[in-house]
Specification:
The chain is mostly helical. The chain has helices spanning 10-16, 25-35, 41-47, 52-71, 87-97.
């Protein structure tokens, strides 16, 4: 059984970055090399002295987070926005944001 690996552009990675705040920087560096730079999992794992299985698991986990978020939008992309708004307008924005699973955590 073959699975297609999610690949991202630099801008897609940057947009997804806030979703990945729980990952260690080294893990994100390795996943970036695979998903954005297109390097082979085995090569990246070897360079970082990790097993191919460990890195493969991290890539799958990041892919799932990004895919699950994209599945809940019509455009396929989410972007983190932090701004100050009048209180009454902020309530409306929060209600809208809660329509997406990623904001229910």
């Amino acid at each position: 059984m073959t699975t297609t690996q999610l690949t991202l552009s630099e801008s897609q990675w940057q947009n997804a970055r806030p979703l990945l705040a729980d990952f260690l920087p080294e893990t994100l560096e390795m996943v970036y090399a695979v998903m954005v730079d297109g390097q082979k999992i085995s090569d990246v794992a070897r360079a970082h002295e990790r097993t191919r299985q460990q890195l493969s698991y991290a890539v799958k986990k990041v892919s799932k987070i990004i895919s699950d978020t994209a599945l809940h939008t019509t455009s396929g992309e989410m972007k983190l926005v932090q701004v100050w708004l009048p209180a009454d307008r902020a309530e409306d924005v929060m209600k809208e944001a809660l329509q997406y699973e990623i904001n229910k955590k």
